[in-house]
Amino acid sequence: MDSSRLLIIGPVGQLGSALRARFPEAPAHDVDTLDITDWEALSKFSWNTVDTIVNAAAYTDVDGAQKPAGRAMAWQINAQAVAHLSRISSSNSITLVHISTDYVFDGTKSPHSEDEPFTPLASMVRVKLPEI
Known about the structure:
This protein is 30% helix and 11% strand. By secondary structure, the protein is an alpha/beta fold. The radius of gyration is 16 Å and the shape is globular.
């Protein structure tokens, strides 16, 4: 794989930093250079040099997400922005890798299995992707 054609979104967090270490020649953007919650910014971005997007961006303040402002921000980053990236990827024939790992199980089983249904403690949110 030509990692220069891999775009890392969210390169400053724990996962993003690990991706940058593994793929140092891959371009990377954080909110200050490409706001994935902004459809207009994504629409204007030049995607012709990108084969794969790895989305490591996320709202991870669990306590903050319990408050109205944090909940809105979490929805914007963790749901709407992912829908934007999905639409961009589909319309540009780009592979999208989206990683989401936290808080999908309630901890009542040990160990959890890969085929176990999700059981988050908070209500499950379903995302409707935009039509393309």
